[in-house]
Design goal:
Structural class of chain A: alpha/beta
Largest sheet of chain A: 6 strands, mixed
Shape of chain B: globular
CATH topology of chain B: ABC transporter involved in vitamin B12 uptake, BtuC
Largest sheet of chain B: 2 strands, antiparallel
Order of helices and strands of chain B: HHHHHHHHHEEHHHHHHH
Largest interface: A-B, 48 and 39 residues
Distance between the termini of chain B: 22 Å
Number of strands of chain A: 10
Strand content of chain A: 15-25%
Number of domains of chain B: 1
CATH topology of the largest domain in chain A: Rossmann fold
Radius of gyration of chain B: 24 Å
Number of helices of chain B: 16
CATH architecture of the largest domain in chain A: 3-Layer(aba) Sandwich
Radius of gyration of chain A: 19 Å
Helix content of chain A: 25-40%
Helix content of chain B: 55-70%
Shape of chain A: globular
Oligomer: heterodimer
Distance between the termini of chain A: 17 Å
Chain lengths: ~260, ~350
């Protein structure tokens, strides 16, 4: 549960730069995610936080600087490569297929095949094993109260669908889970469940990068908060050291960053 | 997920705390449903049920109206022979409709490849089995061209295949010189081409090898769609292409594979067509395009992609076959057969809409 700030960061960037013509989206940005923490990334619109996240999830290739995974430099040419190295992203638009069932969705693109000749020659899916593992994961995350694993995702509520997407990332993410606005489209109660789920995933040892505009949610679950401004990190604060209004002040440039820089 | 299992940390706001005491039901359902609502739910849960009920009702009605002649094994096997071509082409169409596409060129691919098979074997003296393989290759190439138009040039499937339909049909007229290859010539030089029309006796029913071939294709594609990762990816691509891409599926590759496979299936349909009519005619099977779409739609496939099953198409094709055959035996004019098929299509889609409305 407690984060280990003395260890090597799981995911780190140094002097990351990305330019689009004359616009600099990422301006020598540093970033560190430590084992066992929920790191929230906040920033005003246009601050470049989504470019940073895209670079971390492999959706964008930076011009300069380096990305380190467990201290070793890595280069992602695509989200697939980042995923292969254990970085899972839960996208805002969920990336689930409504007509497919929960188990199919969890394993979509990474299906298991039956052992032996059935799998190698006849390419037969191991539906039982996928359903068993999906069931185990959903139960482990406390998501199995109403769902039947062979139920179509379209019959689930927004929060439950988000649960499926989170379960998928927890099932395959071996290093990092990135969550992009996981509560943006949800009601109060469903948000609460998803926030609990995020903590549950963290408590099982996966560090999480949480991108959110919702300050109460950020201050509730985050261990540290990375505030992005003008293409780089403006400050790192914690919910204990700073108030929400401080965070908003730093985010918008109303507060002098130097005085709050050493908070973490 | 119970909302009390994790104690909120210190920063929880009051308005969120209240939510913890809220009702734990996400949604409640009225239990006192009318029988019609229950039936609707049943149909939604088993999409195959509606076409199956129509098929059973049709079989029962026609056996009452027409009598024993309808239920005679000979007549039932005749129905199977009559639906064989639509069934095979329906498989190709199902694959494409599952990806939210539509293929108007399936009939043209079938006729073109039948002409290629016929002319290769009869006019150029190429070994019949090799001729069939060349025909299948031409079918694959035609599907590949459709796939390129749709995935590379981003032309909507309806327009792309409307264009290729005309192109393939014109090529068919050019290559065949608008001449029919006579049945006698085929049976003298390349009897293998007519093998699909040969019958075997099966308890008084006469099954053609073509019908068996059709059932084999249905089984293979059913297996591929339901038991392989490729099949899941076909459904996911048709259901929500963006989500499929984010899940790591190369949707363009899936689309290409589907159009190429459809082309191959159409070429096998060409072989079945030659067996059925005996000769090779550049004018044959002109109705197959729309008939294949009819079978798929009556079988419960959604034209919006991602929903439907391959055996639905088989049942859809059988529904069309049973109606045509039954009405003919009852002495009803051909124009009323067409009329009935039209009503069937509209009813199938109307029922589909009715089932989907209000049952999420």
């Amino acid at each position: 549960m407690t984060a280990h700030y003395d260890k090597t960061p799981v995911l780190q960037t140094k002097n990351l730069v990305k330019r689009y013509g004359s616009v600099t989206a990422i301006d020598h940005a540093d970033f560190e995610l430590y084992p066992g923490e929920i790191l929230a990334v906040i920033g005003d619109n246009g601050a470049g936080k989504s470019s940073l996240i895209k670079a971390l999830s492999g959706a964008l290739i930076p011009d300069e600087g380096e990305i380190l995974l467990d201290g070793k430099p890595v280069h992602f040419a695509s989200p697939m490569e980042a995923r292969a190295l254990g970085i899972e992203t839960v996208y805002q638009n969920l990336a689930v297929s409504p007509a497919l069932n929960i188990a199919d969705n969890l394993y979509l693109g990474r299906e298991l095949r039956k052992p032996g000749i059935l799998g190698s020659v006849f390419r037969m899916l191991d539906k039982k094993e996928m359903e068993r593992r999906a069931q185990a994961k959903m139960t482990e995350l406390g998501l199995m109260t109403i769902q039947n694993i062979s139920q179509a995702v379209e019959s689930l509520s927004g929060g439950q669908r988000q649960g499926v997407a989170v379960a998928r990332s927890a099932l395959f993410g071996s290093k990092v889970v990135i969550m992009d606005e996981p509560t943006a489209a949800l009601g109060v109660k469903e948000s609460r469940r998803v926030l609990n789920l995020i903590k549950e995933v963290r408590d099982r040892g996966l560090p999480i990068i949480l991108i959110s505009h919702n300050m109460p949610h950020v201050f509730e679950v985050a261990d540290r908060i990375h505030i992005h401004r003008l293409g780089k990190r403006a400050a790192i604060v914690t919910p204990q050291s700073h108030s929400m209004s401080d965070a908003v002040a730093i985010m918008t440039g109303a507060m002098d960053v130097k005085t709050s820089n050493e908070a973490a | 997920m119970s909302s009390t299992d994790t104690k909120p940390s210190t920063a929880v706001l009051d308005h969120d705390k209240v939510a913890d005491q809220a009702s734990t039901y996400v949604a409640q359902f009225e239990r006192n449903e009318t029988p019609i609502q229950r039936f609707k739910k049943f149909l939604h849960h088993y999409p195959i049920a509606a076409p199956l009920i129509v098929l059973l009702l049709a079989v029962i009605s026609f056996s009452v109206i027409v009598g024993d002649r309808f239920l005679h094994p000979f007549n039932l096997s005749l129905i199977l022979q009559q639906v064989t071509i639509i069934g095979v082409i329906g498989v190709a169409q199902t694959l494409i409709i599952l990806t939210a596409g539509i293929d108007l060129s399936v009939g043209a691919i079938m006729v073109l490849t039948s002409v290629v098979m016929g002319r290769m074997a009869v006019n150029h003296g190429i070994d019949p089995s090799l001729s069939i393989l060349i025909g299948i290759g031409v079918g694959a190439l035609a599907g590949f061209i459709n796939g390129l138009l749709i995935t590379r040039l981003k032309i909507p499937p309806f327009i792309a295949t409307l264009g290729s339909w005309n192109v393939f049909f014109a090529l068919n007229l050019w290559y065949s010189k608008s001449e029919t290859i006579r049945s006698q010539d085929i049976s003298n030089i390349a009897p293998l081409l007519q093998w699909t029309g040969q019958t075997i006796d099966f308890f008084g029913a006469r099954l053609t090898y073509g019908s068996l071939l059709m059932l084999g294709i249905f089984f293979l594609i059913w297996y591929a769609l339901n038991w392989t990762a490729w099949g899941r990816h076909v459904y996911a691509t048709g259901d929500d292409p963006e989500a499929a891409k984010l899940a790591g599926i190369r949707t363009n590759r899936i689309l290409m594979s589907v159009y190429v496979l459809a082309g191959v299936v159409c070429a096998i349909g060409a072989w079945v067509l030659i067996g059925r009519i005996g000769s090779v005619s550049p004018q044959a099977g002109t109705m197959t395009n729309l008939d294949s779409i009819t079978a798929v739609v009556i079988g419960g496939c959604s034209l919006f992609g991602g929903r439907g099953s391959i055996y639905g198409t088989l049942i859809g094709a059988l529904v069309v076959g049973v109606f045509r055959n039954g009405l003919a035996l009852a002495g009803v004019d051909v124009l009323w057969q067409e009329f009935t098929v039209g009503i069937l299509i509209i009813s199938a889609v109307a029922i589909d809409q009715w089932i989907r409305r209000g049952t999420a």
